[in-house]
Amino acid sequence: MREFDIIGRIKARTGSMAGVRLGIGDDAAVLERGAFDLVALDTMVEGVHFRWGWSSAADVGWKLLARNLSDIAAMGGTSGPFLLSFALGEGVDGACVDGLVEGLEAAARAMVEARGEVGPIGGDTTRSPGPTVLSLTLFGRTGPRGPVTRRGAQAGDVVAVVGALGAAAAGLEVLQRGLEGVGRWAELVEAHRRPWAQVRAGAWLGRQEGVRAMIDVSDGFAQDLGHLLRPAGLGARVEFEALPSPAALRACAVELGAEGSRWVLAGGDDYALVVIAAAGRFEAIAAAAAGEGIELVSVGRVRSERGVEVVGAGGLQIAASLAGYEHTFEGGGEEG
Amino acid sequence: MREFDIIGRIKARTGSMAGVRLGIGDDAAVLERGAFDLVALDTMVEGVHFRWGWSSAADVGWKLLARNLSDIAAMGGTSGPFLLSFALGEGVDGACVDGLVEGLEAAARAMVEARGEVGPIGGDTTRSPGPTVLSLTLFGRTGPRGPVTRRGAQAGDVVAVVGALGAAAAGLEVLQRGLEGVGRWAELVEAHRRPWAQVRAGAWLGRQEGVRAMIDVSDGFAQDLGHLLRPAGLGARVEFEALPSPAALRACAVELGAEGSRWVLAGGDDYALVVIAAAGRFEAIAAAAAGEGIELVSVGRVRSERGVEVVGAGGLQIAASLAGYEHTFEGGGEEG
Questions:
Q1: Do B27 and A216 touch (CB under 8 A)?
Q2: Which residues of A touch B150 (CB under 8 A)?
Q3: Under an 8 A CB cutoff, do B41 and A122 touch?
Q4: CA–CA distance, A97 with A55 (Å, rounded to integer)
Q5: Which residue of B4, B28, B142 is in closest CB contact with A39?
């Protein structure tokens, strides 16, 4: 398949988009000045972040967009157009490219409320003599209160979570063990294949006074919470039992004899949001969120002692066993 | 080497940048609203666009930025900050990452006049179990006349070129034949390793009345000129002898028994600019350009007959032999 055919396939499916003066087909895309002030980039490598045997092309396209939607949500922003970099490996044919694009479209339809806001405006396609490498650059815009960064946590703040933890890691293990046919774990496999970015919650939280810092869970809850606290010399105490995770996860861990707490604390790719909120504002924010259908779960408190202490279900042992966990190339992130 | 080390290496080398509120280190970068209205993306794959044996890490970094600078220049814009996607293959170590970043920096220093405008503000790094795949997303801003797109050519317009054609293709052939040690072809090899993007010329031309369309030569002159004409149902007549190419290229073609005209007409990766200008304005633009040290060479005319006819040095034969040329995945672009 030729490069122009691929570009043509993508272009044929796209229309005009808010904030975009000129999309696919020139040396660069032209944006309306002032339309976007956020930009995120996320890359997925075959064999590291996905495997064709475990995910369909549409699943991979979905996940590629979901990862980036989640980054913009974690800044308290709303998402806009994107650029694609497709370096396509040997086995990738036209149907596979169509699948990738269908997955991108399905993710936008499912997770983004405003129509015609999120779609491709340019990029580059080429052949890879090895694995398929996909990269997406997503634009977004902050709300009236500006971006919610990773900085801003203070001792005494509430640590809260939106979304479930550990489901994607559990689903990956189900796939690794060849058990994806087991119906009662379908929800976990789906969480790995088509993770849900907290698009609406992120944008809503970005508009609330008292929301001090946010991050999305891509490397694992404990590690990503650390990103919010470590630079400020802070730590947190977290109640393990308060951490939201699906009932199927616990049942699956018991049945497989797996370390379920590790999925919850160190599993990546869930794209839940970790939210740091001023203690005096938290109840009001959580109540207003509930009114919007957004479940903001308090799971712990920021404190001036460094380190993340996880209490319950093994207590300090959990924290200790996670201390050495890092997203290394050798491990390859989620599949490490 | 760990992902955080790589990000740290890149971050340590970057300072504040014009138009950027928040750079590396959060879920997304934050731009000043209205600072940029252009965005280009270009991807380079090991074994397709470069080989480690033929280019140093710094050469590859240079070329990655040059390709994107060229895209922004071809819109008549000036370049700004960029995002990186590094999927690093097996042999890539810390020194190699440093080399890539040094090459990016060297390209910015050499080709961009304004200091502190072009540098990294974010991205993603991961390991690749196969070839190294590098992608760069570059921001830019248009001048007061807006973007110069690929559309706008009219019958009778002048076809002009800024920069030399064919040198990078000749240099690649020198490398393919293992002759890079031959001193008199060093200029050609350098053109392959460290192509020169027409950064200043592009931005200057974008401000001139009568400049109707531009494209940079990445796939080869004949093909890229076709991109400017085909959608409008136009063609052009081009004088082969007028096309600018280095003297070393002709000597090299004779000595190697190679088809030098093919390098000039179909060689990619030179990043010369093809400029379409109103005939009545061309002489004035070219004279003013010369005053700025920019050499704008008239090479032919747009006409209403479709197709690109190249006259001289083989005449119509050249056009015929190029008709079937296309940037296919099988051929892999520049190395096809």
A1: yes
A2: 25-27
A3: yes
A4: 14
A5: B28
- Distance of alpha carbon A235 from alpha carbon A242, whole angstroms: 18
Which candidate from A42, A45, A214 shows the least CB-CB separation from B128? A45
Domains of chain B: 3-142 (3.30.1330.10), 158-324 (3.90.650.10)
* pTM to 2 decimal places: 0.92
Q: Which among A4, A37, A215 has the least Cβ separation from residue B30?
A: A37
Three-state SS at B301: strand
Strand order in the sheet with A120-127: A120-127, A77-88, A133-142, A38-45, B29-31, B20-22
ipTM of the prediction: 0.90
Of B30, B83, B328, the CB nearest to A137: B83
List the one residue out of B152, B155, B150 whose CA is nearest residue B74: B150
> Which stretches of A112-143 are DSSP H helices?
none
pLDDT tens for the 336 residues of chain B, in order: 566 577 777 777 777 888 999 999 899 999 999 999 999 999 999 999 999 999 999 999 999 999 999 999 999 999 999 999 999 998 899 899 999 999 999 999 999 987 778 999 999 999 999 999 999 999 999 999 999 999 999 999 999 999 999 999 999 999 999 998 888 999 999 999 999 999 999 999 999 999 999 999 998 999 999 999 999 999 999 999 999 999 999 999 999 999 899 999 999 889 999 999 999 999 999 999 999 999 999 999 999 999 998 998 554 455 544 543 333 222 233 322
Find, in chain B, the residue whose alpha carbon is nearest to that of A329.
B127
Rounded to an integer, what is the distance from CA B212 to the centroid of its chain? Answer: 19
Task: Classify B131 as helix, strand or coil.
Answer: coil
How near does any CA of chain B get to the CA of A281, in Å?
24
CB contact under 8 A, A126 and B45: yes
Residue position matching structure tokens 């890149």 = B10
Tell me which chain A residues have a C-beta less than 8 angstroms from the C-beta of B72. 27-28
Counting every residue written for chain B, the total comes to 336
